[in-house]
Amino acid sequence: MQAITWRDIDTVLLDMDGTLLDLHYDNHFWLEHLPQRYADTHGVSRAMAEMEMRPLFEKNAGTLNWYCLDFWSTELRLPVRELKLETAHLIAMRPHADAFLAAVRQAGKRVILITNAHRDSLSVKLERVALAPYFERLISSHDYGFPKESQNFWSALRDDIVFDPARSLFIDDTLPILRSARAFGIAHLLAVREPDSRKGPKDTEEFSAVDSYLELLQGL
């Protein structure tokens, strides 16, 4: 990964899940815990639960509904927020993310969290990990009514916080979201090499990727 030219950056935009927090919590919840609780509650097999849930996942991927706990509670007839608390012990910050956040703040950069996570999901995470003090703002895409995959999100963000895309760094673990940011004009983009600590590195395709947050401190 090439060193960041920090003098060219005023604003640091950061995703949460898979970027600052280990994605293992979310992957375990959605792929393991929730299907099992669906099976238990509705009296079906685990295989049947996954078969019934799969079309809903495929239909809503990349939309705001995909990230909305209220939507999934209604669709699955389950108290999803309460179920997320059952595995909250798995919520963990990625290595050295806190040191990176502290250093960026100390360097005088604007630091803003932008997440597709529903506000209820965000609150569950913040109860377990002390992220809030590092940020000027904690923004959920639900505040704007558009996911980060949409250009409408980025327009709403610029109107809200007034930032220069050409002088902004954005880090996210989702490639379609990084491509959306690039289309909007965000000049400095980084993916995350290993969002889920249990799944190993992934191909970040055309994007440079963060292996360790300590790498980013050079020249800050």
TrEMBL record:
<dbReference type="GO" id="GO:0005829">
    <property type="term" value="C:cytosol"/>
</dbReference>
<dbReference type="InterPro" id="IPR036412">
    <property type="entry name" value="HAD-like_sf"/>
</dbReference>
<protein>
    <submittedName>
        <fullName>GMP/IMP nucleotidase</fullName>
        <ecNumber>3.1.3.5</ecNumber>
    </submittedName>
</protein>
<dbReference type="InterPro" id="IPR050155">
    <property type="entry name" value="HAD-like_hydrolase_sf"/>
</dbReference>
<dbReference type="GO" id="GO:0006281">
    <property type="term" value="P:DNA repair"/>
</dbReference>
<dbReference type="GO" id="GO:0008967">
    <property type="term" value="F:phosphoglycolate phosphatase activity"/>
</dbReference>
<keyword id="KW-0378">Hydrolase</keyword>
<keyword id="KW-0479">Metal-binding</keyword>
<dbReference type="InterPro" id="IPR023214">
    <property type="entry name" value="HAD_sf"/>
</dbReference>
<dbReference type="GO" id="GO:0046872">
    <property type="term" value="F:metal ion binding"/>
</dbReference>
<dbReference type="GO" id="GO:0008253">
    <property type="term" value="F:5'-nucleotidase activity"/>
</dbReference>
<dbReference type="InterPro" id="IPR006439">
    <property type="entry name" value="HAD-SF_hydro_IA"/>
</dbReference>
<dbReference type="Pfam" id="PF00702">
    <property type="entry name" value="Hydrolase"/>
</dbReference>
